[in-house]
Amino acid sequence: MSVDPSVLARPSGGYAMLAVDQREALRAMFAAKAPGPVTDADLTAFKVDATRALSPYASAVLIDKQFGWDAVIAAGATDPSCALIAAADAFTPSPTEFVADVAIDPLVDPAVVSKEGAKALKLLVLWRPDESADSRIAMVNDFVARCREAGLVSIIEPVSRGPRDGGAYDHEAGIHAAARELGSLGADLYKSEVPTHGKGTPAEISAGCAALTSAISSPWVVLSSGVPAEMFPDAVRLACQEGASGFLAGRAVWASVVGSPTMADDLRTISVDRLRRLADVVDDAVTR
């Protein structure tokens, strides 16, 4: 039986969810501004600080086991009003990609994280045009079954990637192919890339979002990776007008303050303001 994902939503019924589960990509963001090595402890400290500053304004927060979950739980950094989502994906990098392969993380025990407060699990799924659908479908089915057994909301995050040989591909077509392939497999919530990465015309973004709504049988939300932060609020608004229910995003909220000499203060001011504005966009769009 599916689990009601509204446990992750705002009173409006919309989703204003924060992601702090980035791993090596986050290290690279810090490294671009840091004079020395970026340690695991640096990543963990950021995740604790970001969760403490931003979770009062988010309906849910997504945290990874590798660098964040245990420390956030130990610190009691999550506001009681904010639901917890545990990332259940293990990443394998390649020379050209921070995430080249994904598997269900054996170190994330659904029963254990549920006892620690998790209401949901999230799984990243890489959609590549040169790979068989069978393995993707099998992984999603396995993930959904594990979530249902533990009474947790299942969130899948399909992302469009290029072929293994590095050849040309149609990123936009991959977003929609992934939705058609994986959007009706029983996951409780679907997390999608924004069509055109938010850079198309409003009509193009709206048409892409309407197509996603037709392909996905569950509620769905958008992520912010690839979308310029200043364009993300409009992308969220257009997506919600065409059937989306909100966002699960990190970079549009906090990426600009990573590595700032006043980062802790910036999280409480710049990032809080961005998150509150995005939540207002969602509330307005889903109640019209």
From TrEMBL:
UniProt cross-references to SMART domains, sorted A to Z: DeoC
Keywords annotated in UniProt: Lyase
Keyword Lyase: yes
Membership in a protein family: Belongs to the aldolase LacD family.
Name listed for the protein in its UniProt record: Aldolase
